[in-house]
């Protein structure tokens, strides 16, 4: 058997559906999916097996105009994912079409895409009529010479299998990079922290998504097969702590319950999850926080 293995970078604007597609390709939840833009911070790798091919997906942060250090580090990580990949898939939302952000990405691809295999995936195709979709497909291919175009619905699965087969055929001939049963190369501590951060983001809506981070401080394997997980939610201000805790601690209790249930299901065993909320005013300027998120602190320099 000739094995194939390689890296695929999913790029696009925030909320284009990259995390949803990654989770569908891998068959498990390894990247957080919310209705909030810009929830993917680290370049999360999900591993999919298709025939003799192992496809390692790099789910990059959404590409946008960065303003703060964290934003700049995230955008640098996204383009770093492009540089490291064997194949790049640009995801665009059908109903939004060619936005200024998409135009900026196409311009950058013209600079860095030479010699690379770059495919186009137009997502959320159920939101537009066929003539609009055909027009958008033509416009995009007129602007950039994509190796292939796929019309998909990452949420419903339409077209995703065809994309996966195409990617599998384009992986380089080399031994698999990960064990067959491994679906992600992130440490469980980070996956657990991402799950909790997702629940906080969903619960708090527009109040805090950028102003908090979650770290798994301790992970203890117990004799009964369960795991005790201690996490810290860092917020930037005292006022934020009260928001995260909620009235009589109701918010943090609900978040802890939801995260515990999802983590238990993911691991297939019981998890005891304990959350603490701490104020850390300058966490956005601390290099250790970036390392925890898989980002390079130096990339955030202006």
From TrEMBL:
It is found in: Cytoplasm; Cell membrane. GO terms for cellular component: cytosol; plasma membrane. Residues 12-19 are annotated as: G1. Residues 59-62 are annotated as: G3. The keyword Aminoacyl-tRNA synthetase does not apply. Residues 152-154 are annotated as: G5. PROSITE patterns: G_ERA, KH_TYPE_2. It is a peripheral membrane protein. Residues 4-173 form the Era-type G domain. Residues 123-126 are annotated as: G4. One of its GO terms (biological process) is ribosomal small subunit assembly. Its main location: cytoplasm. Gene3D superfamilies: 3.30.300.20, P-loop containing nucleotide triphosphate hydrolases. Residues 204-281 form the KH type-2 domain. Keywords: Cell membrane, Cytoplasm, GTP-binding, Membrane, Nucleotide-binding, Ribosome biogenesis, RNA-binding, rRNA-binding. Residues 38-42 are annotated as: G2. It comes from the Bacteria. GTP binds at residues 12-19, 59-63, 123-126. GO terms for molecular function: GTP binding; GTPase activity; ribosomal small subunit binding; small ribosomal subunit rRNA binding. Monomer. HAMAP family: GTPase_Era (MF_00367). Belongs to the TRAFAC class TrmE-Era-EngA-EngB-Septin-like GTPase superfamily. Era GTPase family. An essential GTPase that binds both GDP and GTP, with rapid nucleotide exchange. Plays a role in 16S rRNA processing and 30S ribosomal subunit biogenesis and possibly also in cell cycle regulation and energy metabolism. This is GTPase Era. It comes from Pseudooctadecabacter jejudonensis.
């Amino acid at each position: 058997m000739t094995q194939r293995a390689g890296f695929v970078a999913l790029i696009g604007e925030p909320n284009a559906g990259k995390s949803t597609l990654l989770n569908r390709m891998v068959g498990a939840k390894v990247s957080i999916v919310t209705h909030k833009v810009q929830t993917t911070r680290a370049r999360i790798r999900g591993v999919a097996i298709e025939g003799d091919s192992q496809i390692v997906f790099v789910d990059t942060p959404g590409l946008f105009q960065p303003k703060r250090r964290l934003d700049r580090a995230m955008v640098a990580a996204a383009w770093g994912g492009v540089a490291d990949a064997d194949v790049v898939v640009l995801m665009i939302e059908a109903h939004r079409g060619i936005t200024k952000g998409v135009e900026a990405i196409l311009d950058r691809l013209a600079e860095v895409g030479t010699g690379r295999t770059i495919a186009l995936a137009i997502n959320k195709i159920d939101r537009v009529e066929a003539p609009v979709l055909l027009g958008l497909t033509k416009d995009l291919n007129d602007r950039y010479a994509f190796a292939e175009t796929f019309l998909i619905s990452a949420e419903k699965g339409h077209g995703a299998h065809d994309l996966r087969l195409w990617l599998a055929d384009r992986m380089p001939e080399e031994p698999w990079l990960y064990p067959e049963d491994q679906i992600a190369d992130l440490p469980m501590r980070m996956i657990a922290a991402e799950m909790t951060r997702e629940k906080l983001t969903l619960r708090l809506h527009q109040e805090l998504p950028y102003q908090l981070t979650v770290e798994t401080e301790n992970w203890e394997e117990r004799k009964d097969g369960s795991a005790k997980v201690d996490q810290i939610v860092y917020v930037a201000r005292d006022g934020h702590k009260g928001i995260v805790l909620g009235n009589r601690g109701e918010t943090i209790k609900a978040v802890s319950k939801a995260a515990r249930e999802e983590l238990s299901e993911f691991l297939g065993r019981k998890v005891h999850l304990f959350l603490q909320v701490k104020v850390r005013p300058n966490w956005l300027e601390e290099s250790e926080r970036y390392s925890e998120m898989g980002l390079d602190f130096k990339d955030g320099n202006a």
